[in-house]
Structure formats: C-alpha cells, structure tokens
Amino acid sequence: MAQNLDNGDKLPNDPILPGNSFRQGCAAKAADPLPASATSGLMGVSLHRRTALIASLAPLLSEVAFARTGTGAHTSASSHLHNTVHAPAIIRGAAPPPPLVMLDPGHGGKDPGAIGYSGTYEKHVSEAAAAELERQLLATGRYRVALTRSSDRFIPLEGRVEMAQAHKASLFISMHADALHDPTVRGASVYTLAGAASDSQTAMIAQSENSADLFGGPHVHATSPEVQQILASLVSEETRRGSTHIANQVVSSFQSRLSLLSHPHRHAAFVVLKAADIPSVLVEMGFMSNRSDEAALRQAGHRAMVAGAMRDAVDRYFATTRLGVG
Ligand SMILES: [Zn+2]
Known about the structure:
Blueprint: H1 36-39, H2 47-56, H3 58-69, H4 83-86, E1 100-105, H5 122-140, E2 144-147, H6 157-166, E3 171-176, E4 188-193, H7 200-209, H8 225-255, E5 260-268, E6 280-284, H9 291-297, H10 300-322
Parallel strand pairs: 1-2, 1-3, 3-6, 4-5
Antiparallel strand pairs: 4-6
Helix pairs in contact: 3-8, 5-10, 8-10
The protein binds zinc ion.
The site of zinc ion (ZN) has 8 residues, from loops.
C-alpha cells in the first residue's frame, strides 16, 4: 500500500483521501490569523503602564522562571527562594534527574497533517520519526523523554504546550513534514518562534501548522492579553536564546547529512512553539509534497539517520547549555 511506512511494525492503514495527490496539513483550520494582540508586541502600551504592570507581575514571573529552569532549578541559587512553596525538600547530595526532552509528533487522529505526493500521511511520518528519536535519546542514558502522543490521536496545539509544561520539560521538539504547493521544494528546515515570519514561504508553513490561537501558557491564562504580552516578552528572552541555540545545533547536524532548504533556520508565529518558559523548536524533516523527500521519509533507515542527527544536536545543546554557553 502506497501510504504504508517502512517502519517494521506500525503500518498505518488510513484510506488515502480522494482528490489532490497532496494537500497542506492544516490549511483548512489555519484560516484564522493570530490576533493582532499576539503579534504586536508591546506597541501601544505606555512606558508608565508597562512599568506598573511589570511590578505587579513580579510574583508571577518568579513562578514562571522556576518552572522554566526544570531540573536546573535543583542546583540554582534562585530556586532556594521557592523551595518552600513549589518543590519538595531537596536531599543533600541527591543527583538531579536527567533533563526531560518533550517530543511532539505533529498532527494525529482526525488531523492527518500533510498528505504526500504518493499518499503518505504526515502524522504517520512524524509519529514514526519521534518514536525513533525517543529510542535514540533514551539509549544515551542522559535524558528522560516524553511524547505528546505515541499513538494516532488528535491533540490540540495548546494541549501539546501544556503537556510540556506539566512535565517541566527542559526542551520541546515538534516534528513535522509539511507540504507546499510547489512540489519541487525539498529539504529539511528548522523553525523558532517569532511574531513575524522570516519569509513568505515560512509564513505559509506556519499557517499550515497552526490550528489554534494561543499566546502564553497555562501560567498566564487568567490574565488579559496585554498582560500576557508583557509577561511573555519578559520571561522568554532566555527561552528565545535556548530556542535559537537548539535550532542552530539541529541545522549544524543536518548540514552534512541531508538536504536543507536555503536559509534552513527560519522563524514564524508557530502556535506550538509558544511556551514562554521552554526552549522550543519545530523541525520540518522534509516536504511530503516533494517526491524525493516523501520517499526518503517512508524509509526507516532515513528516519533513523534524521533522528541520529537530532540526537547529536540535543547532546550538543545540553553539553553547552550546562556550561553556560547556550
Ligand atoms: Zn505538520
């Protein structure tokens, strides 16, 4: 069957939808652009108003910062202030648990994602690739790994972000293989969050991948859009640095092993990358709309190579972050 993946055991059997040979993953649901409040930064907020709001947000900020530090919190001086409220007693000399890497296979269930040139579903490719990356990361013994889904089920984008936050993930990696209208475009690419897309092609990819609007995580749900903006902009500077750092490592790993888009590190307003407190990256492993990329991603060996490159990137990310380089 054309849509079956070469993954040895899991053979997806969803029928190929009639009509076009491929389509964009979430285009039908991506019609709603991000609200202006989600992309306009702090423009329009007076300095005086910002200062007052920032002062009133201090307690919230400390909570977010604590959640963000994850395993690192056990060794940071600042965490001491919060131990009595947020954390169980720390046993002297106990080693902190390994960092938790949250893998996010795109789409699932009623959302097939992109449908490839010959009928492969993106949701199956992303699930198989994430399972392989999980296996490789666990094999190092250096990480804990959680997946937003390990079966073919639908999870809203905001639910994926909330899962990562509930796990106190140190890193969030969303895995995709989108489709474009131009079937000649091929190659991997890596995306980080920004209010405005770096280019029109990236804007289309972000629109395709976004199926819900969300700004901020559960920490800020109860606040106004204005406060969400300020809070997110303050707490996410470190997160942005971490996101850029992991994106650079993934691009570097991919460079010698598989074809890349030109300017392979791009940015746009991907909803699934909007955890203010967790460095997040979205990896398009290739384009299902390209015959060569689709054929490659159907092969378990190719997916193992892609996952190996991503594992190496994660290794370098944590090695340098712990040294304060990231
Ligand atoms: Zn996707």
